[in-house]
Design a protein that fits this description.
about 220 residues, elongated
Length: about 220
């Protein structure tokens, strides 16, 4: 009576391994900016059979889209866990920004996926953009940020963040924490905070052990 469920579970695990291998291969290719590849190249990189590709994805574009979504969702889970301890929406924004810059060192492949996605990442419904939009709106409502168009503010902050991540990617020897905190302070001042208040939020102690994505 237990043979059928056991067999089904084994098949499900095998399918999950294949799907995860395809997503890992797609993530690595996206991080390298290589999207003009064949499905055969993808399955070779994933070390799975060519025919198994279509058991999981209908096209290469669908696979790459799912890989980007997975990176953003990983970021979202990690970020939400960190900022849950903060109540001030301006500090939530600052901690999120500071965490994201530092993540370049711990999650370089994922950050490169974000960079190769370009500014389109700022209009997606997952990851950085919706959280930044929500934090900025909450900080404005609390009187912590000056009133301004939330979408414009989010795009300005997002542009600064992408520039920071690109700089850190190109300069592996740079102090990611120091540079990230400097940019965070500048963005907070752009939102209307005083120099003293911005620098305080940009240098307050972060959680001792920021979470790291699973390899």
């Amino acid at each position: 009576m237990t043979a059928e469920p056991t067999t089904r579970n084994r098949v499900d695990r095998r399918r999950a391994r294949t799907r995860n291998a395809l997503l890992a291969a797609a993530t690595a290719l996206l991080a390298e900016g290589r999207t003009a590849v064949s499905i055969q190249e993808i399955t070779d990189a994933a070390d799975v059979g060519f025919g198994s590709f279509y058991n999981h994805f209908s096209s290469k574009d669908e696979l790459f889209e799912e890989a980007v979504r997975a990176v953003l969702n990983t970021y979202g889970v990690l970020r939400d866990g960190v900022v849950a301890a903060y109540e001030d929406p301006a500090e939530v924004f600052a901690v999120s920004f500071r965490m994201t810059g530092r993540m370049q060192r711990d999650f370089p492949e994922g950050v490169r996926v974000i960079l190769h996605s370009g500014t389109s990442i700022l209009v997606r419904d997952e990851g950085l953009a919706p959280r930044a939009r929500r934090d900025i709106a909450a900080a404005q409502q609390a009187g912590r940020f000056d009133p301004m168009d939330v979408e414009m503010a989010m795009m300005a902050a997002g542009g600064a963040l992408l520039g920071l991540l690109q700089l850190l990617d190109r300069t592996p020897g740079a102090d990611a924490g120091e540079l990230t905190d400097q940019v965070t302070s500048r963005v907070l001042r752009m939102f209307g905070m005083s120099k003293e208040a911005a620098e305080r939020l940009a240098t307050n102690p972060l959680p001792r052990d920021l979470p790291k994505p699973l390899a």
